[in-house]
Structures are given as C-alpha cells and as structure tokens.
C-alpha cells in the first residue's frame, strides 16, 4: 500500500502535494515533460475533446498557479513528493490529500515557521502554502455570502462524446459573475446514475462529517475530528457489517454548499456552470449503486473524487490494487478480447491508443465495472501499467543505470524521451533516477550512527508536529534534509521500524514483539474482513492505544505467522483467517498459544526475495563498489559448476552482475574500484565445513582453548559462539588461503557437543562474535527471522571415549533424542488441543531450554553435523536417524564411508554430505582404512563430498590443497572446486548466499594467481562482503607491496592441471576394503626405462651416451645400478627382462623425511602400534635398571618396517626416513634420544639396506610449557641448564648420556634441537659458543622447527648452524607466533629469508601419514619463495641437504625414483619405480 492518506481533506500539506503532482504530470505509462503536456492539451482542446475541456472548465485558475509554480521550480524549488508510491498516478491513493488541519493549528505552525526564518526551497514551499490557505479562506467566505452550485455537477452530465460548443463558451463569458444559489437537495448527481443492483462497500471508504445516523448499526459511533480519527474508530468494528448498515440508512448524505469548493478557482477567469441536476430521494442502496455507475463511466480526477467524497459521500477505493482486483481487471480484459474476437495487438491498441486517438469509452467502462470500487482513471492507469510492453523487467541492472544517467544528462528530466532510450517505462525511469541515482555519491548504507538517528528524529518530529508520525511524513523532503546521505526508503524504514518506536516509548527502544501484539494484529486484520492480504492497509492497522509498530513490521510479522500454518501456501486469505480467528475464551492467551504453535512448525530457508536484495545485511559503510574485469569466473553449484569469461560487479556487499560489464566503466559511478584480472581465475570464497577457529585460537594458549567441555556426554544446550574468539590469528591466515566462511565446531569429545555457528572470517566494525555469524538464528538474535537454519554437532564411535564405548555413545544419543521426542509430542498434543479450542486442557506450553535444540532437530529446523568415521559408526548413525526421523547435513571424518556408500544412502531424509581429508588417514583405528580415492568413489555413488581442514589438524589456510589432492587422485576438476565452495555451503543451508557466484550472492570473492587447482595457487585478492581483505591494508610492520605470481608465468598455469590415471589403484583399494597390498614388486635383473626426459643424481645431471638429437632417452638398470644411458643404439633392448615407459618422465634422487614417528609406529593414537613414551628425567625418576641419568634411548631398538605410512611414502618417492625416540616437537620429552635412518621400502631390519645409518643424530627439544598439557612442565631455564651441564661433560658416570652428549659437543654427531622461539635460539647460539670456547670444538648444531629463525638469520649463518623447517608455515604455540607466513601476507617466508642469507636448510614433516605428500609440500614451499628457490635447490631440501644436516652418509648415487608422465614437481606425474643401488633391486609399483 502506498504511504499516503486514505481520506481526502483540505490540509495545506495535501494541497502542496497536489500542486507538486500537477507539475509532474500523469504517471506510469504516460509521464511527459511539461512542454509536451501543454502541446497535447492544446491540441485536444482545439479538437473539442470533452475530457480536456471538462478538465479545463473545472479549474482554469490552476494554469495561472502552475506558471507561478514552474517559475519557482526554475529557481530551484525542491522536490516535495512524500514517497515513491506517492509519485505513481495510477495509484489513486497517491493523489489523496492529507488530513484536515484547523485554521488555528495552521496559524500556529505558520508563525513557528516564520519565526524560524525558513528560507530557500522550504521557505518558498511554506510561503506558497500559506498564501494558498489565505486564498481558500477568502473564497470560502465569498461562497458563504454567495452560495454556488457544485462546479462538477454539469461536467458530469457530459458524455464521452459530447462536443464542447464554442458558442456556448462565448455566451457564458457575457453572463454575470454573480451566481444564484442552488438548493442543496437538488444538487446531487446520484439520481442520474441509479443502476439495478448495488455493491458491497469497499474496504477503504471516504466519509463526510455527517451525524451518526449514517451508521444506525453503531449508535455510539461519532465522527468528531479528522478522517484519520474516523479510520481509527472504524478499526475496531466489523467491517463486514458496513454493507448492511448502508442499506438501512434512511437518508443520503446531506450536500452542503461549503463542501463544493473548486480549490481556489477564480470567478474572473472562469464562470461556474449554472445548471444543476434535480435530486430525487433515493435509497442508500441506490446511492451505492450510483457510486459504482459513476466511477465506471466518468473520468473523474483525484480532485473531483475528493470533492464528491465530501459533498456526496462518494464511496471509492484507493491505493494499490489487490491481487483479487488485479485478477478482476485481467479477467475483464481477457473476456472483452474473447467476446469480441480481438487479437492481442487489437486489445493493446485499445489500452494504448496512438497519437490523436481517443480513449474508447465503452471499453474502459466495461473493464472498470469489473472492480466497482475503483474509479475509471485508476483502472485505466493500472491496466496500462500492468500490460505495458516494458513492464516486468525486474531489478535495475548496472548497465540500465548507466544508460539512465546518460539519457538524463543529455535530455534532462523529459521522462517520456528518457524512457525510449532506456527501455523502461517513464515512471520507472523517473522513480529510479530520483530515488536511487540522485545523491548516489553521498549515499550511505549499513548501520545508522547515533548522530544520524538523532538528526532523523529531529527532522521528522519538527516537520510533523501535531500529525501522525507514522503516516503523514514527506520522506523525500526528509531525505533532502538528511543531505542526501540516506534514501527516502532508508529514512522511512529507519523511522517506522525503529526510531518511531523509541520516540513513542520515550527512549525505551528495547520493546519487542509479544504475543499480545500478535493477538492485536490478528484481531485488526480479521475486523477488516478483506478478501486478500493485498487489500490490507498495514499502516492504518494501529490506533492510539496500539501504535508501537509500523505497517512494515506488522506486515512482516503477519506473514511470519502465516508461515506457521501447515499448507498456508495453498490456502486463501479466508482460510488462514479462519485459523487465526480467536475462539471464545481468553483471547490473548489463545493467540499467544497459536503463535507459538505456528512458529515451531515454520520451515527454515531463505526468503524467495532474498536474491533481489539491493544491500547485504552485512554491508559496512564506506565500502567501495568493485568491478573486476576480464576474469575467468567460476560459476554454478555442485555438478553444475562451470567457468565463464567476463566481468564481476560487487556493490553494497553483494554480487550485482556477472557478464560483459564494460559499460560500467563509462557510467561515472563514484567510489568504484576497477580491477583488470587479466584472465585470472576468480572463484567464490572458500567454505570450510569443519574448523576449530576461534575455539582453539592461535597462538595456542590455555586461556583461549574452548573447544571441548568435560561436563557430560550430551550437551545440546552449549553454544560455540559463547567461546568464539574473534582475534584468533588463524582467521587471517585462513583468509590468506582464500577461505572466507567457516563452520565453527567444538572438538568431538562429547556425543553432542552443542550448537555450532557459521561465520565470516573478516574482522567486523563491531568486533563481536555475533557480528561475524552468517544469518544468526533467532535463538541468538531475537530480531531475526525464525526460518533461519540452526546448526548442531554430535559424534559417535571411538572419539567420545571419555564417556564410554561405542554402545555407550549411541545410547547417550538415543536417550537425548528420546527425551526431545517426548517434548515434541507434548508440544504437538498441546497445539492440537489449542486448535480444537479445548482451552480447559491447555496449561503451560511444554518446553525445555536444555533440549529445545534437539526438538528443533526433530522438526527439521537444524543442520546436524556428525563425526562418525568407521562403518560400524556410520551404521549406528543411520539407524539412529531412521529411528527418530531426522536428517544429517554432513558426516565429518567419514573415513570408511567410501566403503559403504549404499549404507550412507539409507540415511533418513537422504544421504548427507561426506566431509573428508584428501590423504590424512591412519591417525586412529577408525581412519585406518581411509583412502585417497574416497572422494572419487563417493562421487561416483552419487554422494556429495566436501573437503575440509578440521583446523588446526590441517591449517584452514591449506583447505584448497585438500581439493587439489582430491583432484590429483581422480576427483573431477569442477567437483574438486565445488567441494570447497558450493557443496559445503549447501550442507550448512547457506548456498543461497555463499559458496557460489551469482547475482544476489554475498560478495565473497577470491582472485588467484593461477588456476586454483594448480599446486601453489595463491590468492591475489580476497573480498569478504565486498570488503577487500587481501592484500592487507598498509601498516608500518608490513611489506609495502606484495609480489605474487613469480614462477607461475605461462598459459599452463591458467589451465586445469593434468593428473595421472588411477583406475587400477582405485579398483584394488575397493577390492581390498581400503588395505590394498603396498609392498612393491622387486626386479633384480635387467630393466629398461623408455622415453626418459631427464636424469639427475646427487652428483648432478647425467648425459646420454650417444649424440641422439631426441629429447627422450632410454635408461638400462642392472642390479639396482644404471648401466646405460642413451638412445636405442647405445642401449639396446636385448636381454631386457622388463621395460617401463616413463612417457617423458624424470629420474631423480629419492627424498628423505624427518620429524615424524614414521618407522616407529603405525597409528599415532594407538599405543599398541608404536614404541610408547620415553622417560622424562626432568620430571620423573629414571629406573635404576637403565643406569643412565637421561634414560637415553636409540630409535634403532624400536623400528617398525612395512607400516602403511612408510610404504605409502615409499610409493611417492620418499625412500628414507630419519626417526628419533619421539616425534619432533613433543614437549613431553626434552631428550628424545638418538635417531636412526632407515629405508622406507624395506620389509624388516635384517633386509639388505633396511637400516641406512643406525646412529644419525642426538635430539633434544627446548620449548616453553605446552598450553594444553595438564601435567607439571619444566621451565626453559631448567632445560637450558640441563643441556649445558650435559654438553660441558659434567656428568661423572660413564653412561650413554655422557658419551653421546660428549660426541655432540665435539661435533662428531649433529645435535638437533627442536625449538621455535628466536629468543631461545639466541640463548642456544650463546651456549654453543660457550661450549666451543671451553672445549675447543666445533659443534654441528641444527635447529628443527625454528619458526622464528628469520629474526636471527645472520647470526645463525655466522654460527654455522643449520635449520630444518616445516615445509608449510602454520598456526602454532606462542614460540612460533612471529613466523613469516609468506604470500599473500608477506613477500618472504622464513625459508626464503634463510636461503638468501646462505643458511644450510632442510624441510621436515611432522605427521607420518603426511610423508607421502612431501612433493606437494615442497612445491608449495618453492613457489612461496617468490622465485628465490629453484627446482633443483628445492629438491635438495628433502634429499641431499637434509642428509647433510643430519649426518646421513649414503653411497655416491643413493636411491633414484622414476616418475612417469612428468617431473617431480608436475601434477601429471606419478612414481612408478625406485632404483636402489644399496639393495641391488628395482622396486616396481
């Protein structure tokens, strides 16, 4: 409904509206500039058009006043329209005047304005209004002295075809100016229009100030005051009785001479018609029928309708056409076309007559008769708008805005001409320009400041003193007074939905919608007795006793309540009304109950209008628009993911357009940032379905660990947001990896760990955890829509073992859901009693705050995330869902799901999304059968797969690498990208706004320096909600400019990578249920490798033995050694037992891994599969039997060969491993003992070459206390003191500890120290110097980990200390907080800084199951160095350099690895064999 008065009066404000509208001309389909309007009227007047003549005769003086107004307009008079809706002439309500203001009030306001010294546009407007009021007052006095007839009376007798007699005009000019009074009883028009039947009174009626006898059915109803007061009085009545009341009325409304004022019309300019129609007494039903006949046969202007409403009690409807009325008009048009055999073009010719053609009176009268409450002019304009050829074009697009700006710049505000250029209706062009284009450069969006709120309140209250603060506001004027920084719509909504409430409650702005409000609303709507929701005037529902809520709020609340009715979509208004009607009894309580019952039954999901939004709810004020041009854009969702070349426009926090948008660069859009992508890949922001970000905050500290609770197995009442730390440094690192949204999960140490949230990772201006949440549900934000998804997490299987075994876990879940099921059943029974009006049986609504989230799970309002890994766990989960009938959104860590896809498909409600790692398995018994082929197998079975990080298990920053690896092992390229974008977004119910790029989606966008599936792909820019996050804003401690893309030049980096074929391996994995044989096939005879592109060993590249010009050669191997290198002639194939085609592949040295427990254990969380824990002599006594103060142990005594992690690493080119007593970095053991170097492909320790070096290095760890450990820990100073004592030989007994630490001090064996802090490293460098000076030796000290080593790079080089780093920097403890993260946050990594400084470097791997990914990690480290480190230098970091640092001595050549299909750094390659000279064999895979 348009925001305007329903009842016409003669207020100054309403006259001001009418004058302004008369200036603007007609609307919607026939908007014209003033010059063309004058020409048209003159043309029709000369042709004798009765309509024009009639209009001219009614108000000739208006032309004179119009000229004065135009003159003022040219001097700068502003636009004073009250609303966009008020600008549409087809909506009759928009032309209605305002409420009546008494002369005393007018005089008071006029004096106030004059005392305030109003000047400029506002002053001119007030001046004009005051003068107009004076003119009307004088005219009224003259009319009282010389009564005149209604000037409309004669004009109504003219038919459509009556000509205007020019001679009659001349005769009238000679008549006397004095008019003879006419009896009011003879001045009614109704006797001329008395049809055979009557019609029901419409919803909105116009009533004169007549006595209460007009409504005999309501004897107490009085009408003292304005029409607005009348409306308020009628709100409480049963409007359905109105027809009966009118039919029993004995007297028609009295006509008074004073009610027929011609609006200030001068008798000097125009004579009044003398002839008056004789009125006859008619029944009220005749009067009602006469109204219908009159409305459908006469072209009555707004002014004429208003005067007839006052003088004759004319009943007519105004405002927006309801859905029923719209259908009535459409049906009437179709009937007219069919009955007359017209074509569509012929019908359109009647609706849109050409130039010079007249309107068909019969046609329009028949169409109007279909909606008897509507005036003919309203039906005319509605039909023209509804059937306009340019209608229904939807939201304005950026290119249309640009065209509109250009058209107005060249044509001015001549809207008809502008329309033809833009391709929109003239009214659309006008409204778009005035309401969205003007002041766009100054416009502000987002949260209102307190200063803005205060200013708006002051403007509205001053302008509307004494008036209705909700409905009588000129919002265009308000927007102007706000200096154009806020649109009229923003001002209106802010006032009506927020500030008005605060103003009415004198500052108590925390009032919330209550059950009583719902009851009042339902009662008011029911009293209206309308046929359809669209007939409800929401802004006029309230009254003096209940006026806290705006019409906008009430409409939204009513729609929300309707959604609570099952099947409401298929119900009529009367049907929903029947459900809402209050039965006899305590009405407020009844409606409160019904509202509660409807709310719990509502379905979650986005509004159908969500994608049509203009501004994101997350938009931050001051954010520039962004145009990304010439991009390769990833669009679509899931299986429909594809690429599109073009441009991307981001504005107000959303994606506004995708396609060819070059015109925007010429559109002069202010605050527009244009970025040429140069065909770079642009994707949606990545979505991580499983992280502990904010709950395990980096750097890890005990005070910021809120990821688990010890209060019981089932805790559905806990909420993760209550522990979410928005300052987690891991969030910025995740953004650096392209992750923009994440689900925050607690650790799965409970069967039900609580309610989760989905957050955007950027820092908000508010800075609160809640402001980061995407679509916070109503239990977090009471103002939110109850249809938003909620989220909860649960677990089964071995993980929550703290509270029992697997049966215990499932029983805990069943018991919790059984309790929730009972609560739901009680609620449903309660609601059934309410629906049956059994109020005596209804007491307190049954609910439980602890289990309400599980009740919502059973009602389908919650997305459930479950961790279940093994097939046994998944089976129990599937049975649980079918028992209690609830669906699962995703299953996390589902390591064995790929083995039972049919079981997964039996989940109640359909198969969930399976969230997986790419290769991170065998960390516990349930993940032991996990496979790198799982994503492909599940996808082939029709189950959606999402890759996840489980941060910090895998840093969320490296989420994309999980997708890259899944693609490497066979997952389709587009599905791999969807697995970290649209698929996880859909699993959490937010794919309408995140995870994909489409118009209306959130502006979460990532631009990459290469194809996202290429190893090392790095974000160049990241936007979240349209706000640039990467690169970081300038700061004194940051690099001034980030140089990305070095080493990624060439077209091949823009393409999807080629990957190997894995069909055989995948089939074998399925056949063996995840445990296929891994031992290689040994070949000791002659074997030839064909089509080899490159060969290099530790000594360097090898040269072919012939002068062949071919780029590919053959390699012959015998007994594990290369015996021939050349072409077919040089290396004949005679007596060859086997040949392997490398297809342009390479042969390179085998890699070595260090830093993990590989070779000492099979499953890290299973003590029975490993060595166990070493004694820590710093905190516990060493048994005497060991006779060693440090209980120094050697890893050689606890080796395990043939583990799956070792053999898998061997198959990927990692041929050796150096392992110590405990994994590096384990702070529980300060002295880790002696390491051993082994062959990863050996079967047992006694096999030839299995143990490469029994004693490799001595290992210690110097770190600050572990933030997670609950046990007593040793101080750093005590650790250093103990190390000094051992190195200086102060141990008196001849023990292993003394002997090996002496060797370390003398440099016989390397001393490898696991350390992170630069401060501790500095202390160790000083200690090294001290030991060397005292003993006269040169120690071989190596720092392992060393995240902050770049701070001491020169000192480390000068001390001749080597450094072994993690291949990829990540989040960690306090000691590691100053690590250099690399691109796109810093130009350098710690590795690059140390490399440039000349420090001897190697790389380590901390997880045994991750050793297989050495080449992936190495490639990332090389590319992250920004071109500093080349391929051969990078390869040395995991081969020769690492061996040198650890003191590993091998044969001259060592093991060699054969890669087919490419080199070690190519994703197209895979390992096919290992050539082992030390063992005299070739291992073939």
TrEMBL record:
- Domain of life, per lineage: Eukaryota
Indicate yes or no for the key word DNA-binding: yes
Name the major location. Answer: nucleus
Under PROSITE patterns, the record lists: HTH_MYB, MYB_LIKE
List every stretch annotated Disordered.
Answer: 1-205, 244-278
The record places domain HTH myb-type at 388-441
Myb-like domain location, by residue?
388-437, 440-499
Q: Which PANTHER family match?
A: CYCLIN-D-BINDING MYB-LIKE TRANSCRIPTION FACTOR 1 (PTHR46380)
* Protein name, per record: Carbohydrate esterase family 9 protein
Q: Which organism is it from?
A: Favolaschia claudopus
Q: What is the lineage of its organism?
A: Eukaryota, Fungi, Dikarya, Basidiomycota, Agaricomycotina
């Amino acid at each position: 409904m348009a925001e305007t008065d329903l009842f016409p009066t003669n207020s100054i404000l309403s006259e001001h509206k009418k004058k302004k509208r008369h200036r603007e001309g007609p609307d919607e389909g026939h908007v014209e500039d003033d010059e063309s309007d004058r020409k048209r009227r003159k043309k029709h007047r000369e042709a004798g058009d009765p309509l024009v003549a009639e209009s001219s005769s009614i108000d000739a003086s208006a032309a004179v006043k119009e000229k004065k107004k135009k003159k003022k307009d040219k001097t700068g008079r502003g636009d004073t329209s009250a609303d966009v809706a008020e600008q549409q002439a087809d909506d009759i309500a928009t032309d209605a005047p305002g409420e009546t203001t008494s002369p005393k009030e007018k005089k008071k306001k006029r004096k106030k304005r004059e005392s305030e010294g109003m000047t400029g546009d506002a002053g001119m407007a007030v001046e004009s209004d005051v003068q107009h009021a004076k003119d009307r007052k004088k005219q009224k006095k003259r009319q009282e002295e010389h009564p005149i007839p209604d000037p409309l009376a004669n004009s109504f007798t003219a038919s459509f075809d009556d000509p205007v007699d020019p001679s009659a005009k001349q005769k009238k000019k000679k008549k006397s100016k004095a008019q003879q009074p006419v009896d009011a009883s003879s001045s009614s028009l109704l006797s001329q229009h008395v049809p055979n039947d009557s019609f029901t009174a419409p919803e909105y009626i116009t009533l004169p100030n007549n006595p209460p006898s007009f409504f005999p059915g309501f004897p107490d109803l009085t009408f003292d005051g304005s029409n607005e007061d009348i409306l308020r009085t009628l709100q409480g009545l049963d409007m359905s009785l109105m027809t009966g009341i009118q039919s029993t009325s004995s007297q028609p409304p009295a006509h008074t001479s004073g009610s027929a004022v011609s609006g200030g019309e001068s008798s000097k300019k125009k004579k009044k018609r003398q002839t008056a129609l004789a009125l006859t007494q008619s029944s009220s039903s005749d009067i009602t029928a006469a109204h219908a006949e009159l409305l459908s046969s006469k072209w009555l202007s707004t002014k004429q309708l208003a005067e007839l409403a006052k003088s004759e009690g004319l009943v007519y409807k105004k405002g927006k056409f309801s859905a029923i009325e719209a259908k009535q008009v459409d049906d009437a048009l179709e009937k007219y076309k069919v009955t007359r055999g017209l074509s569509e073009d012929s019908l359109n010719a009647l609706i849109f007559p050409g130039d010079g053609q007249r309107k068909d009176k019969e046609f329009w009268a028949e169409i109007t008769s279909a909606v008897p409450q509507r005036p003919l002019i309203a039906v005319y304009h509605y039909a023209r708008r509804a059937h306009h050829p340019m209608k229904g074009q939807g939201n304005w697009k950026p290119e249309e805005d640009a065209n509109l700006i250009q058209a107005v710049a060249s044509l001015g505000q001549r809207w008809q001409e502008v329309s033809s250029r833009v391709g929109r209706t003239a009214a659309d062009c006008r409204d778009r320009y005035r309401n969205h284009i003007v002041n766009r450069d100054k416009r502000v969006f987002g949260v209102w400041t307190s200063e803005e709120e205060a200013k708006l309140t002051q403007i509205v209250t001053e302008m509307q003193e004494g008036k209705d603060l909700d409905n009588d506001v000129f919002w265009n004027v308000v927007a102007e007074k706000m200096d154009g920084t806020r649109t009229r719509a923003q001002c209106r909504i802010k006032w009506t939905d927020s500030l008005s409430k605060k103003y009415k409650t004198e500052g108590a702005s925390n009032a919330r919608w209550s059950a009583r409000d719902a009851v009042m609303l339902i009662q008011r709507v029911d009293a209206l007795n309308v046929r359809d929701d669209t007939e409800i005037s929401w802004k006029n529902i309230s009254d003096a006793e209940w006026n806290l809520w705006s019409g906008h709020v009430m409409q939204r609340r009513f729609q929300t309540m309707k959604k609570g009715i099952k099947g409401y979509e298929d119900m009529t208004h009367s049907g929903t009304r029947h459900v809402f009607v209050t039965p006899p009894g305590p009405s407020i309580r009844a409606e409160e109950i019904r509202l509660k019952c409807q709310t719990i039954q509502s379905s979650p999901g986005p509004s159908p209008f969500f994608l049509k939004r203009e501004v994101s709810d997350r938009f931050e004020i001051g954010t520039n628009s962004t145009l990304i041009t010439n991009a390769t854009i990833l669009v679509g969702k899931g299986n429909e993911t594809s690429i599109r070349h073009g441009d991307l426009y981001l504005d107000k926090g959303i994606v506004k357009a995708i396609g060819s948008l070059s015109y925007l660069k010429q559109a002069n859009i202010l605050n527009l940032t244009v970025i040429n992508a140069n065909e770079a890949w642009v994707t949606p922001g990545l979505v991580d379905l499983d992280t502990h970000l904010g709950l395990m905050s980096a750097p890890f500290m005990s005070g910021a660990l809120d990821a688990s609770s010890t209060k019981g197995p089932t805790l559905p009442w806990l909420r993760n947001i209550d522990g979410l730390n928005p300052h987690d440094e891991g969030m910025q690192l995740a953004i650096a990896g392209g992750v923009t949204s994440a689900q925050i999960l607690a650790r799965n140490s409970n069967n039900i760990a609580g309610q989760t949230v989905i957050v955007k990772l950027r820092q908000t201006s508010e800075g609160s955890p809640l402001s980061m949440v995407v679509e916070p549900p109503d239990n977090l934000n009471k103002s939110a829509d109850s249809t938003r998804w909620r989220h909860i997490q649960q677990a089964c299987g071995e993980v929550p073992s703290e509270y029992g075994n697997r049966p215990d876990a499932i029983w805990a879940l069943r018991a919790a859901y059984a309790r929730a099921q009972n609560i739901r059943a009680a609620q449903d029974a309660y609601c059934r009693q309410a629906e049956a009006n059994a109020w005596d049986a209804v007491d307190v609504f049954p609910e439980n705050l602890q289990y309400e989230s599980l009740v919502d799970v059973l009602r389908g309002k919650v997305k459930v995330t479950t961790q279940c890994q093994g097939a046994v766990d998944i089976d129990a989960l599937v049975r649980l869902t079918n028992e209690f009938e609830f669906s699962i959104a995703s299953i996390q860590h589902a390591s064995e799901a790929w083995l039972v896809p049919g079981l997964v498909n039996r989940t109640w409600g359909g198969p969930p999304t399976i969230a997986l790692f790419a290769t991170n398995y065998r960390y516990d018994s349930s993940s032991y059968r996990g496979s790198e082929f799982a994503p492909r197998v599940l996808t082939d079975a029709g189950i959606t797969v999402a890759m996840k990080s489980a941060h910090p298990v895998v840093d969320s920053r490296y989420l994309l690498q999980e997708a890259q690896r899944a693609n490497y092992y066979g997952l389709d390229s587009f599905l791999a990208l969807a697995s970290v974008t649209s698929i996880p977004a859909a699993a959490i119910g937010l794919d309408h706004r995140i995870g994909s790029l489409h118009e209306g989606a959130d502006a979460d966008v990532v631009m990459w320096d290469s194809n996202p599936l290429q190893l090392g792909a790095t974000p160049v820019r990241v936007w979240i909600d349209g706000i640039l996050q990467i690169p970081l804003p300038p700061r004194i401690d940051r690099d001034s400019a980030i140089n990305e893309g070095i080493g990624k030049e060439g077209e091949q980096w823009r393409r999807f990578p080629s990957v190997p074929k894995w069909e055989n391996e995948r089939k074998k994995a399925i056949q063996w249920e995840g445990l296929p044989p891994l031992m290689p096939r040994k070949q000791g005879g002659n074997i030839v490798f064909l089509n080899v592109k490159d060969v290099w060993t530790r000594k360097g590249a090898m040269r072919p033995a012939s002068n062949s010009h071919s780029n590919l050669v053959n390699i012959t191997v015998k007994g594990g050694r290369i015996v021939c290198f050349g072409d077919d002639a040089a290396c004949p194939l005679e007596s060859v037992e086997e040949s392997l085609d490398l297809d342009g592949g390479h042969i390179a040295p085998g890699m070595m891994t260090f830093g993990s427990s590989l070779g000492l254990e099979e499953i890290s969380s299973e003590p029975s599969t490993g060595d166990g824990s070493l004694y820590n002599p710093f905190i516990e006594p060493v048994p005497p039997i060991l006779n060693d103060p440090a209980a120094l142990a050697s890893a050689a005594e606890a080796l395990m060969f043939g583990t799956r992690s070792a053999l898998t690493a061997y198959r990927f080119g990692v041929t050796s491993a150096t392992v110590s007593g405990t994994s590096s970095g384990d702070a529980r053991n300060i002295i880790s003992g002696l390491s051993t170097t082994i062959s990863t492909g050996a079967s047992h320790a006694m096999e030839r070459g299995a143990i490469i070096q029994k004693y490799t290095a001595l290992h210690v760890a110097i770190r600050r206390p572990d933030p997670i450990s609950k046990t007593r820990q040793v101080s750093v100073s005590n650790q250093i003191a103990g190390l000094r004592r051992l190195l200086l030989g102060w141990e008196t007994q001849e023990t292993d500890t003394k002997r090996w630490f002496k060797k370390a001090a003398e440099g016989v064996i390397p001393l490898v120290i696991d350390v992170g802090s630069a401060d501790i490293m500095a202390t160790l460098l000083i200690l090294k110097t001290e030991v060397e000076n005292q003993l006269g030796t040169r120690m071989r000290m190596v720092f392992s980990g060393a995240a902050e080593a770049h701070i001491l790079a020169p000192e480390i080089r000068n001390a001749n200390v080597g450094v072994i780093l993690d291949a990829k920097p990540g989040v960690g403890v306090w000691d590691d907080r100053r690590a250099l993260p690399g691109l796109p946050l810093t130009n350098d990594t710690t590795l690059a800084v140390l490399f440039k400084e000349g420090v001897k470097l190697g790389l380590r791997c901390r997880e045994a199951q991750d050793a297989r990914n050495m080449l992936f990690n190495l490639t990332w480290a090389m590319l992250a160095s920004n071109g500093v480190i080349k391929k051969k230098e990078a390869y040395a970091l995991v081969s020769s350099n690492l061996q040198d640092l650890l003191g590993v001595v091998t044969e001259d050549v060592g093991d060699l690895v054969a890669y087919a299909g490419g080199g070690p750094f190519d994703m197209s390659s895979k390992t096919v064999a290992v050539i082992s000279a030390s063992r005299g064999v070739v291992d073939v895979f």
